[in-house]
Amino acid sequence: MKIILLGAPGSGKGTMAQRLTSELDIPQISTGDIFRKNLKEETPLGLQIKDILEGGGLVPDEITIAIVKNRLAEEDCSNGYILDGFPRSIAQAEALDAFQKIDCAINLDVDNQTIVSRLSGRRFCPDCSGTFHISSLQDPTVCPVCGGKLIVRKDDREETVLERLRVYETTTLPLIEYYKAQGKLVTVNGTGGIDVVYRRILDVLHK
Ligand code: AMP
Questions:
Q1: Alpha-carbon gap, residue 51 to 108, rounded angstroms
Q2: What does the pLDDT read at residue 196?
Q3: In terms of pTM, does the model score above 0.85?
Q4: Distance 22 CA to ligand 1 centre (A)
């Protein structure tokens, strides 16, 4: 199955994609993860996109499309995949349509207040790459998995979160109409606990 996960930053795409990937045995393709890995490893691409990522903007379409096109051509994607964070613009969606036929686009619907609270409460462990929310941490500075020192990701800082939401609303939101017009859009309520939201997704996939 070829699935797109749509939704604002903080809507839970990454978490849901991780669960789906093990359940359906198809890879999760996260453009955000690909870009962060390049940033961490200071590759030429990483250096080129550093300011964009840290400012909450979008990496240019031609770079992003080329990366996804190459990735989807790999053997492990032949039975399907879950796209997490791509497409993020109409141009990216049109490019994807030109080389792949996706089955459905799942839109995780979460209100703005919940999004801001999720992102501003998010903490990241640079040692083990774990992501946590302060509401589930005894000590918001210590990683519960490896004991590392938790940080706020640069793109989770308040001013960057607001910019990411602005970019989402202007550039990514039109994709909902785009996939609705193709008859491929399914909207799932993304609020509530992880298990509850995941169940809702499985229910729509089984239909
Ligand atoms: P994410 O983890 O999906 O929120 O992505 C983190 C950052 O990577 C975004 O704020 C963008 O700067 C960049 N990014 C991820 N996916 C895309 C995409 N499809 N197009 C352009 N930029 C992207």
A1: 28
A2: 97
A3: yes
A4: 23
- In sequence order, which residues have a C-beta less than 8 Å from that of residue 204 and are 6 or more positions away? 106, 186, 188
Type and span of the H or E element at 82? strand 81-84
**pLDDT of 162 above 90:** no
Closest-CA residue to 176 (of 188, 165, 185) = 185
Determine which residue's CA is closest to atom 6 belonging to ligand 1. Answer: 32
pLDDT in tens, 47-80: 999 999 988 899 999 999 999 999 999 999 999 9
Domains located in the chain, CATH noted: 2-111+166-206 (3.40.50.300)
Once rounded to an integer, what is the mean pLDDT over residues 176-196? 96
Cβ atoms within 10 Å, residue 152: 17
Q: Which residues pair with 6 in a beta bridge?
A: 107
- Phi first, then psi, for residue 109 (nearest 5°) are -95, 115
36 in catalytic set:
no
Respond yes or no: is residue 157 known to be catalytic: no
